Every structure is written in structure tokens, then in C-alpha cells.
Amino acid sequence: MSNDSKRFPQYDELDLPKVADEVLKQWEAEDTFGQSLELRKDAPPFVFYEGPPSANGLPGIHHVMARAIKDIFCRYQTQKGHRVDRKAGWDTHGLPIELGVEKELGITKEDIGKKISIEEYNAACKKAVMRYTDVWNDMTRRIGFWLDLEKPYVTYHTKYIESVWHLLKKLYDEDLLYKGYTIQPYSPAAGTGLSSHELNQPGTYKPVKDTSAVALFKVKPDHTSEFLFKDAFGDVFIMAWTTTPWTLPSNTALTVGPKLDYVRVKTFNPYTHEPQTVVLAKSRLSAYFKEESKDASFDEYKKDGKLIPWQIIGEFYGHQLEGVRYEQLLPYATPEGGDAFKVIGGDFVTTEDGTGVVHTAPSFGADDQRVARQHNIGSLTLVDLRGRFKPEVTDFAGEYVKAEYYTEEERAAEAKKQGRDKYLSVDERIAIKLKTEGRAFKVEKYEHNYPHCWRTDKPVLYYPLDSWFVRVTAKKDRLIALNKTITWKPESTGTGRFGNWLENLQDWNLSRSRYWGIPLPIWRTAGGDEELCIGSLKQLKEEIAKSVKAGVMAGDPYASFKADDMSDGNYDTVDLHRPYVDNIVLVSPSGKPMTRETDLIDVWFDSGAMPYAQWHYPFENAQYFPPSPQEKGSGVEGEKFPAAFIAEGVDQTRGWFYTLHAIATLTQDSVAYRTVVSNGLVLDKVGQKMSKRLGNAVDPFKTLDQYGADAVRWYMISNASPWDNLKFDADGITEVQRKFFRALFNTYNFFALYANIDGYVPAHTLSGVEGVSGVEGVSGTDGRTESDRWILSRLNSVMKLADANYADYEPTIAARAIQDFVVEDLSNWYVRLNRRRFWKGEMGADKNAAFQTLHRCLEVIAMLSAPIAPFFTDRLYRDLTGSSVHLSDWPKHDETLIDTELEQRTALAQKLTSLVLSIRKKEGHRVRQPLQKVLVPVTDNTMRTRLDAIRDLVLSEVNVKELVILDASESKLTKKIKPDFKKLGARMGKLMKSVAAAVQAFDQAQIAELEAQGSMKLSVEGHEVELLRDDVEISAEAVPGLSVASDGPYTVAVDITLTDELISEGIARELVSRIQTLRKESGFEVTDRVQLHIHAEGEQQVEQAVRRHAAYIVAETLALTPEDQLLVTGTTNGDNGLHEVELDERTRCLLSLVKAGN
RNA sequence: AGUCCUGUAGCUCAGCUGGUUAGAGCGCUACACUGAUAAUGUAGAGGUCCGCAGUUCAAAUCUGCGCAGGACUACCA
Fold first, then answer.
1. Mean pLDDT lowest for which of A35-44, A121-130, A364-373, A671-680?
2. Which of A569, A598, A627 is the last residue of a domain?
3. Do residues A710 and A20 touch, judged by C-beta distance below 8 A?
4. Annotated catalytic residue within A302, A422, A692, A982
5. CA–CA dist A552, A14 (Å, integer)
6. pLDDT tens for residues A736-795?
7. What's the rounded Cα separation, in Å, for the pair A101 and A200?
8. Nucleotide nearest to A451 (CA to C1')
9. Quick one: A703 and A776 in the same domain?
10. Which bases of strand B sit closer than 7 A to a protein CB?
11. List A17, A27, A52, A152, catalytic entry
12. Nearest DNA or RNA nucleotide to A915 (CA to C1')
């Protein structure tokens, strides 16, 4: 409830969700966001990029976190005087959208083009992808994230795609885009390649039992392999293990670890019992040979496969095997494109399992392909796209390589064909074949995890598929060098996870065989010898025109599009998605038709291209970018490039963070962002990842409804650094609400209450007054007390610290400093100590200084907290100053107002106060009972000076009459001595332990001597060492005869003797307290005057107290009763409003209290 | 499997370049306070600083090896 008649609105209760709601409406009504941009329109830009979310899914609580972090720094930079444009964006392409649409329409990929046309399918995608934009926009608004939602960039817009095409062509022209093939996970049953995303679906990896075989590859004797044949026993074989025997016909190489140790072993074949010599890694011996039959007699071998004798007859390094040739194991076909059947070296070879020799089939393994390419080894692909052996593999032609690809019935039919009861897989039959031919060493079932297609539930094959690649490896050095100029928060993500990723860079596989995405703008002739990459719509139209002219195409499907017309209307006439582009056939210079490569590009390229594509660069807005190539990367900034700051989840490290970096490096030779904050995950309260499945996901809207955006944001930011995982616990939000916001709210309400009563008018200007804003004529430091100067000093310290930490992307440190200041310094200390100044007496210099000081503190706190808690602080700031905090200039701290000495001595006052209060507690004297004397022993002059300064403060706070400083030399004191380990340790080194013991054993006389002389010689372990006064801390320990408390170096003693006079005063205070409570309970206003009478009921002490302190009681309680009429003895003479109150356990009296009619 | 992060009181977190009583808030218990009061103060209980080893006069802090949780990348003969 606000009261409009008052200058400063007062509120009954703190309702953060309501405040947020009202402020949001106000922002929308006033377009505060727009104003904040307008205000800074000529200011230097602070460039921020919004990572596009996919509106295909609903936002979760982690998005609140992510968006809050982005908002904080954008707001901070705006307050600091920058123009911060914030364009929203939507990631609209990609597999999750396709899958969602398929689920919705009840179709599968196979149905596309059959049951449903590609046009219809794409239209459905376009619709589906923006389904939740309203929900997203609503959340974005409600958490207070200021973002231009009106003109977002959308990755499916024609302009966006055109910019992407431009980038692709740029890469193409610089030979950074090429066609090759990679081994990719492929589902023969579904007939499609699988993304790693699909492979990482839960339940994809399943334990399966496969037939594994150790095959024997027969070494060919030549000069390279000569050393293997020395004293050979039978033929010489290299042992290699495989869990996929069906790949053995496609074997073209064997890979060994160049640095590993290998041995040659003389033994018998366990199946044919023929003599043989085998080669394997030394550390794998135990897996295949029994220790007990080592060096057993070869003559006595029983040919039963048990206890086969064996003997090591040679040892050598892997690199010695490189180049050794062997006979093809299963000679069904001849490899193409390179050498084959040779031993090569590869770093990836381990000796954890297998034989230390890797059977290498370049068509069916990513490692295999890579190592084969390095050594120019050809490949064999003897399996077709449906997962069946090709005809060349005569024994198994047409058979599925995995038994799982057959249905039950088919398997039974196959078994019949094989003439067996049970179907034997090709793996099993290849193993049998190897056994009979003497080419197997060990065949067994092996259980391991193998990926399955999430859709068909059948095992995946790794299969060579055509792909387009970005040759990022060509720019690896620049990628690494530029990364070193980026500020990563936290740093370890940049150097570690991201840095290592760059060090092990692979070319970027851009191809996706899908429907809903940006088409690759490359057209090729059937033979692939002529090729064209399109970089703009204009160029495309020109090529179409040529094609039409050559009679290849009938007409221009984009005829309505006018090149060079940049209007949205013009661009809306064109759709560059499939299938439209697929229908375009261009003509090559030699006159052959060229069709588009059917691939789409990786959606990561879409989002990585956003710095340019969001502005339709370079077709429009080229002025936003660094002006010339010479200036690129030379520190010259464009208006919109690169970003000063981006932030997303740490899971984007190899996603968006990488694609931005890669594209900027390759096309601009520049970083895309100067600072990146990678925020952690939001987990549930027990540290589990949130998921719908576990039902522990937190609904962001409910959370915002319940607590308000400010509390949620403050909780998230103050609780843990953005990059640490956050264990989200709603109790934590309640705590933030109670502590920080309520303290701030109460402090403001307190200020408003008295400021309104006294008609306080802040002399406020919008131009950002430094220091204290004051009333006309009462300027500057007039009337400022020690505690005013103290809180202003603390305030300026916090301003300095908060500014430095916001600037350094450390919002958590800033938030905690602000919160501590508000809760501890401002609310619990300053306001509590200075309450009287606000409500006692008329407006004067002292009172004005108090108002000024508190007003300034509140106003600055609103500004400092505004980036994190934008709603509540805006309300607070408007209440204080009449304008929006988001249009304010960041307050600059004033170094001259920071007085560390003052801060330290106030800390001392707080410490001493706490000690005295603890003595009161121990002795059972409540604070209202005045005590006579407190004694504080002092050991140095600094402390003495400080004590003098804070004397009054401490005395009034603990309600004691006098403070006595005890000199160190006073004999009553016993002292304690403690070595300063840091100082002494450095000098004493190994002697430290003994020196410390010696010092701690000092008696009072020795301590006194050290204090008097300033130094002392000690003899320790036969060494003479010098001990200086500064090497130790001396503190007073106890004052005999008084009640004492101490903490660290501080000690206080309190004289607890109660005199008659002290007791009287205590009672007077109790009375005042009771009367004040009564005033309040009676519903009187703070300023109401009263008629007061006290019936002591014969209590002598009470009567005496009232007589002695009548003036005090009258003044404190705003009573109009003449002092001598205050005490009413004996009877109750018909007074109305009589209240009995208890002063302590034994004493009670009656009070009558009536509002005075004035 | 690799890379990175985290591990301090029942809970959430501080503890800077190593320095001797390891802190705060919440929660719990007791007492007090009461013109800010769904606030506040004081006191108490509560710790193998994840474990082991090392460096050092001195390790929560530095090094190594593990363990647990998490993220990402890869998936293997």
C-alpha cells in the first residue's frame, strides 16, 4: 500500500512477485528498455551476442540462470555508459525439430517424399519450431532479460541463409571446404547415418555378446621381415584381435604401437596343432599363454590344445614391425586406392586388451580410416548400405553381417539353408573358417557395450559416407593463437577443455543427410569434375538464367525475386530450403547439367554464423564490421563485431563457442568474442541433473510466481559462481528474500517513515551526484557523525569492489559484497545505532546528515544491485529519486571517502560491543540495566587512539557509563604472547618449532622485557637468534577481580557492581520500553502525544526511579504530562486505559496512557 | 577411454601467493532484545578440510597416485 500524499511511498509488506509484476508493466508502458538504448545511442558500443535457443522445447529453470547472467552484464555495461544492442535469435533447424514433427505427424523418415511431400514436411517444421516462442518470450520478459524480441534473427529466414551461403563460398574459394568421406555411425536398418547426438541417447549403448577372434596374419618373408624368421618355428604370424570378424575380409592393414614392446613366440596352433611362431605385444602374453606351460617341452605336446608349450624367441619394438608385409587373410577382393597388407604404426594402439596389434579395416572404423590415410593404405568396403556382404565375398554373399538384422523367421530360414539347427552368424562362421585354415588363435564370446540405433534398436555399423568438410586443421595455429586472446570465465575451460580440443583438431564434418536445414550451396556435374559454389541469391539467379538459356531448366523459380532489393518483402518470395533448391539444375561451363549436393549443413554452422547472418552481412550492414581486411585482427573493432561478451552453458564449449570461433577465424581472421562466460548446470537440491524423467525439473514460471524474478536471480548469482554447478534449492531463495530483500526493504521503509514526517527533501539531480547529495544550504560534510562517515566509507569500498567484480565478470563476489553491506553494515549496525537521530528532535544539521547518508546508501545500493535484481531496485530507486535506475549512470566511488582506519576502528567497536554483551549475558544483566564501567587493556598506541575515537559509540551501544583504557604497563594485567609464524618462520626456518616453543613459554617478566627493549636474544638448539617485538603478538589476558571476556587479541572487563542510582536508571529504561510497547499496541502514530500516568503501587524503587528520571521518561515517550504529575501513588482514581506491566520477575506497576487531544 | 570441473559443519558456501583456535549464513538448542519487529543480538552443540603418499620448520592450501560426483568429446581392435 503506497500513500501518494507522501513524498516517499511506504509499504506494508514486501511482495517481490507483485513488485516485479508492477515494474514490468511500468517498463512496458514507458518502454524503459527503449529509453535505455536511446539514452546511449551515441555511446561507445558494448557488443553482446545472444546464443539462439531452439523454441522447439520449453524453457527450464537453467534458462533463467543463463539469461540472468547475460542480462546482468548487459545492464551493467549500459549503466557504465555503453550502448548495448541485444538482438534475440532463434535456432530453428536440426534433428530435434525433425523428430518432433515426425512424432507429431506419426511418420518416419522413410515416409518423407512418399506419404508426405517434402514441402509439407518443411512447412510443418517451420510451424513446429516456433511453437513455444510465446512461452519463451514470456519467460524472457518475466525474468527481466532485456532483449530485442521484436526483431530477432531466425535461422530459417532467407536473408540468414544467404549470409551463411556467403560464408560457405568464402571458405570454398579459399579451399577450406572439400568433399571427402568419413566413417560414421550408420543404421542399415533405418538406412541413415546417425549423429553423435542420436548415439548419445540414453539406452543406445547396450552390452552385447559378440564372437571375438584372434586372427593370425601370415608374414611374408622379405628383407623387412627377415628378423622375424630367425629360428622360426613353422610359419610366422602376427596376432590381431577383433570383436567384429565380419570386417576381416575388408582388412587392409595391421596397426602396432611404435613404442610398445613386442615379442616373437614359438608355439603350436591351438586348433590345428601345427608349429607356428606368433608376434604380439609383450604385455599381452599373459592373456594368451599360460605361465605353467612356458618353456615346456615341445616334443611332449599332446596336441590337445591344453598346456601348449611356448617360448619367447625374440623381442623388439613396434616400429621395427612397420613395413612388414603379410598375406591377405580372406582374399575375396583387391583393395583400391593405395598400398595394402602392411604393418603400420598408430598412436592409438593400447595394450589394455587384444594383442597390441589392431586389425585395420579403413572402411569400418574411424581410427582405422585415419591411420590408413596417413600411411596411404587402400580400403575394401565389402558390405553394402543395407549391411549385407557384397557378391565378391562368395562364401557369405548377400548375408547380413549382423544376425540382429534378420527377423526370427529369416534367421530360421537361413539356418535351414546352412543345414544347421541353429543359425550361425557370419562372425561365427568366419571364426570357424579361420580355425580350420589354421588362421585363428583364439575364438570366444566377448561381452562389450555396442551402440544401437535408437529407432530400430539394431546394432549400428560404422560405414564410410560421403561428406563435406571444413578444413579447420589448415588454420589450427590461428585458432589456437586467437583463443589465447579470449578471456574465459572460468579460465580453465578456455585453456583446458577448449584449448585441448583445438590441439586435437579434426576437420569439421559439415554434412547432414536431412531435410530441415540450410542446404549446401554446391552444384556438381554427375562425374563430379565440374563444381560450383553459390554465395548469394544474385549469383544463383545469374546461374539459373544461364541454365534456362542453355535449355537445362524451363524457367526461373525465383523469378519474382529482384536482386539488390533488400526489402523483407522481396526476400519473403524466396525459399531456399529443400526441396526448392533441389529442383534447380545449373549448367557447367562445358554445358553439362549440375545438380545440388543433397546434403544439408550442420546446424552448428547456422548458430556459429550468427554474428554475420543476424545482420545479413555482407549484403546489408557491412558498416557494422571492421572496415577493411588490413584492419581485421589488428584490434580495430566493428560496431557489431566482434562481441565483447557472450555467455552460454559450458556444454556449448565444443558447440556454439567453437563454431563461432572457427567461423570467425577462418573467414575474418579474428576472434568472434573477447570474453565468454561458460555457466554451469542447474542441478536439483541433491545434486542430480534435472530431467522430466526423474520428475525433479523445476518449473521456471511457478518459481517466478512464487518468489519473483529478483529473489530467484539474486539467489542464483549470490549462491555460487556462474560456472559452478548450482544445486537449486527453493529454501535458498526464501533465505535471500528474508535476508537481503527484507533488510533492504525494512531499511527503506524506515527511511521513508521519518523522511516523510520530517519533510526531508533530497537535493537530487539526475546527473549523478558524487558523494552525498544534500539539502540546499546544508552541504557536504556538515553534521556528519563518525558513523555517517563510517557507513559512507564502507559504501564506497563496496562500490569499488562491486564495480571491479562486475567488470571482471565475477557477479557472485559483487552480489555477496552488496548483500553483506546491506544486511550487516547498513541494516544491523548503522540503522540500529542511528535510529534516534531520525526520530528525535527537529530537523537540523545532524538529522539532515543522517537522512542524506541513509538516502545515499539506499540509492547507491539500488544502482549497484540493479544488474542482478532489476525489478525491486527500480522500484526502490524510483521511490528515492523519481527516475528509473536503468537509466542512471553507474556511481563512481570516491576514494577520499574511503577511510580504512575508520573501518578498522568500527570493526574494533563491534568486536568490543559483542564482548561486553557476552559478559552481560553471562552475568545476567540485561542491556537496559546501565553498568558503571568497562575496562579495556591496551597494548599499543594504535589501539589506544582507536579506543578514544569509538568510546562513545561502544558505551551507548552496551549501555555503560565509562570506558577505562588500561595501560599495558599496569601490573594488574597478565599478558599472553604468541609468535607471528609468518614473520618468524621466514627468518627462522628449521628453528621455527623450537623458537615458537621458547616464546610460548615466556613468563610475564620476559614479556615485559621484550616490550621494554624492543628485541631479545634467544638461544635455541645452540643457535643465538634475535627476537624482535614485531615478531610476536602480545595481548592482555585477564583483569583480576572483574568479569572478563576475550576473543583473539582483544579483552574487555566489566565492573558489574550495581549502585542504587544505576538500578533506578535501569528501571526508568524498563518503564520507557513498556510505555513504548503500549503506545504501539494502542495503535498510536509515531508522532502522537500522550497523557501518561504511572502507578507505582508502593514499589519504592519504581517511585524513586520515576522521580529521578521523570524528564527522561516524558521526553522519550512524547508525554505531555507535567513531570511532577507523572507518578500517581496509591489508588486507582477512575483512570481509563490502565495497563499492568511487568518490569522484571518481581516488580510490576500500572500504566495509564491516553492520546492527548491537541 | 580422454579432457575439464567439483569435493571444507546437517545444508549452501568463504578461506588470497603455504603460517598455528579452519570461518560465515541457514538449520538446531538456550537465553535476551523489542518506536525497523514474520526482524535482531548473545551463547552452545556440530569438522578424519574426500583418501593415501610426498615436498616443507609449517599443507585445507603445493606435487603425485587414487576415490566419489558432474560435464563434454570419443567409442574403440
1. A364-373
2. A598
3. yes
4. A692
5. 74
6. 888 899 889 989 988 988 888 888 887 653 333 333 433 333 345 567 888 888 889 999
7. 21
8. B75
9. no
10. 3-6, 11-14, 19-21, 25-26, 31-43, 56-58, 69-77
11. A52
12. B42
Q: Is the pLDDT assigned to residue A892 strictly greater than 70? A: yes
A153-183 confidence digits (pLDDT tens)? 999 999 999 999 999 999 999 999 988 877 8
Q: Is A1142 helix (H, G, I), strand (E, B) or coil?
A: strand
**Å separating the CA of residue A979 from the C1' of nucleotide B60:** 22
A245-301 pLDDT, tens digit per residue, is: 999 999 999 988 887 788 999 999 989 999 999 999 887 888 888 888 888 888 888
Q: Which of A9-23, A43-57, A1064-1078, A1142-1156 has the lowest mean pLDDT?
A: A1142-1156
* Cβ atoms of residues A566 and A504 within 8 Å: no
Protein-to-nucleotide distance from the CA of A724 to the C1' of B61, whole angstroms: 20
Same domain, A147 and A123: no
Distance A752 CA to B51 C1' (A): 57
What ipTM was estimated for this complex?
Answer: 0.84
Q: Is A931 left (phi over 0), alpha (psi -120 to 50) or beta?
A: beta
Q: Based on the domain organization, do A703 and A614 belong to the same domain?
A: yes
Cell of A922: 553471562
Nearest residue (Cα to C1') for B24? A820
- Greatest Cα pair distance in chain A: 131
* A652 assigned to active site: yes
Confirm whether A156 is domain-assigned. yes
Q: What is the domain-level CATH number for residue A808?
A: 1.10.730.10
Q: Which residue is nearest to nucleotide B5 (CA to C1')?
A: A724
> What length does chain A have?
1158
Q: Which of A77, A184, A652, A1104 is catalytic?
A: A652
Same domain as A350, residue A215: yes
DSSP letters spanning A886-949: GGSPPPPP-GGG--HHHHHHHHHHHHHHHHHHHHHHHHT--TTS-EEEEEEE--SHHHHHHHHH
A188 CA – B48 C1', rounded, Å: 56
> What pLDDT sits at residue A32?
96
Q: Which domain holds residue A690?
A: 17-91+130-169+604-715
Could you say which of A468, A488, A523, A604 is catalytic? A604
Can you give the CATH number for the domain in which A214 is found?
Answer: 3.90.740.10
For residues A702 and A738, membership in a common domain is answered with no
Structural domains in chain A (count): 7
Which nucleotide lies nearest residue A492, CA to C1'? B4
Distances (CA, A) of A940 to A196, A390, A779, A912, A943: 70, 95, 37, 16, 6
Instruction: List the CATH number of the domain containing A54.
Output: 3.40.50.620
Q: Does the active-site annotation cover A136?
A: no
The spacing between the Cα labelled CA in A1002 and the C1' in B58, in angstroms, equals 22
Higher-scoring residue by pLDDT: A220, A936 = A220
Is the CB of residue A203 less than 8 Å from the CB of residue A454?
yes
Q: What is the spatial distance, in angstroms and rounded to an integer, between the CA atom of A790 and the C1' atom of B22?
A: 30
Q: For residue A240, give the nucleotide whose C1' atom is nearest its CA.
A: B77
Query: How big is chain A by its Cα radius of gyration, in Å?
Result: 42
Question: Could you give the percent of chain A with pLDDT greater than 90?
Answer: 31
Q: Is A656 designated active site? A: yes
Is residue A249 flagged as an active site residue?
no
Cis before A557? omega within 30: no
Protein residue closest to B26, using CA and C1': A735
**Axis crossing angle, helix A992-1000 with helix A981-988, rounded to the nearest 10:** 130
Same domain as A225, residue A341:
yes
> Could you confirm whether A604 is annotated as catalytic?
yes
| Closest nucleotide to A653, Cα to C1' | B72
